[in-house]
From TrEMBL:
Lineage: Eukaryota, Metazoa, Ecdysozoa, Nematoda, Chromadorea
Pfam families, sorted: RhoGAP
Biological process annotations from GO: regulation of axonogenesis; regulation of cell size; Rho protein signal transduction
InterPro entries assigned to the protein according to its UniProt record, in alphabetical order: Rho-GAP_domain, Rho_GTPase_activation_prot, RhoGAP_dom
TM segment ranges: none
Molecular function as annotated in GO: GTPase activator activity
Ranges where the Rho-GAP domain occurs: 1-87
Cellular component per GO, a single term: cytosol
Superkingdom of source: Eukaryota
Protein name per its UniProtKB record: RhoGAP domain protein
Amino acid sequence: MIFLLQEGGLEMEGLYRVPGNQAQLSELEKSFREKGDVDIGSLDMPVHVVATAVKTFFSCLAEPLIPTELHDNILDCIADNDVIFLT
């Protein structure tokens, strides 16, 4: 899914803001529930549907992807003027 987003959507305006078609999203979710491992490319899903599925997955996690106790540390790092950029 992430590869599909990188290939087809990173330059697209509103990729994670514009919701995907609900019927197609339901079809994608059903495929994952039934098969577990889905070849996204074979389903020919629009990139907005895939982005919406990724957003939904992360929002449904029992624990946040970035633990709450790390939020202050992350904000401190963002505010740090001595940032080293890795390329």
